[in-house]
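1st attempt posting a full record on here, be nice pls
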Amino acid sequence: MDAEGTTAKRVVDEVSGWLRVFDDGSVDRTWTGPPEALLLMEPVPAFDTPRDGVTLHDLPGDPSLRLYLPSPPPPEGRREPLPVFLHFQGGGFCISRSSWLMYYQFYARLAASVPAAVVSVELPLAPEHRLPAAIDAGFAALLRLRALARDPEVELLRSVDFSRVFLIGDSSGGNLVHLVGARAWEEEEAFWSPLKVAGGILLQPGFVRSTRSRSELELRADSVFFTLDMLDKLLALGLPKGATKDHPYTCPMGEEAPPLEKVRLPPFLVGVADRDLIRDTNLEYCEAMKKAGKEVHVVITEGVSHSFYLNKFAVDNDPTTAKRTEELIAAINDFVRRH
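the predicted structure (as tokens):
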């Protein structure tokens, strides 16, 4: 008990630096790791005066969305409808917010470079909301986009081509690209019209197995944002209770998952980092998809690790990370133009 005679809460689970789970079910996500990492977690407020090549708009709802629009728009003669990226952030289903600077600095750049509209989804977090909550929210975001596509009064989205929607996700957000894409493609085209999911982009997706892969055993974590301890504990908190990492949500190429041959999916681009702890299971997923006859384009980025492009410090100060990030954006742009 504390000084006032009330029973103090007890920590029953912890992911070092990131979150603590208490015996009453509450969760504390106060960052307790290196203070220099805090800048990447700062929320970026919405703004309508162009900055970094975009304007940024919040669309409250269920789920809430954040819209990046390239600004200023291209000259009149070169103006084409903008493809749409529907973005799912990573964080092992348990941490991170789509408003954080780490996401803003990359997705503002992507929106301005392609150019494209980027719509980030505010996802529910586990363990308060275990999977499939984030999958349901991703699908609900697609339904919101469909409603916006059918509403001619939405001035902000007049320049958007809803027939070219690309799902995109970082780390565990890449899992959502696969899972939401599969659910979306269960429906007939008329259900979505005029919206169409034209493709998916999975950036170092959180695909794993219960047994350690060779890359998990041999590579060393080089960032507080991704360690084996985080991988194990966040997925244990994010998956349905009692599930292992062999669950279809984290191992769609595994024995517990539906056969990939029977899963309808749009074309995918999968980004793999050669120093990523989960590189080998990423590659296993790509090979399983190809074997199942799916259209999969694989981009292997050398010399960098998990979600390298989200680390603003490295992107700004390390020439290798900066170059690899440029190459990744170019690969995404090429994929979008071909689909």
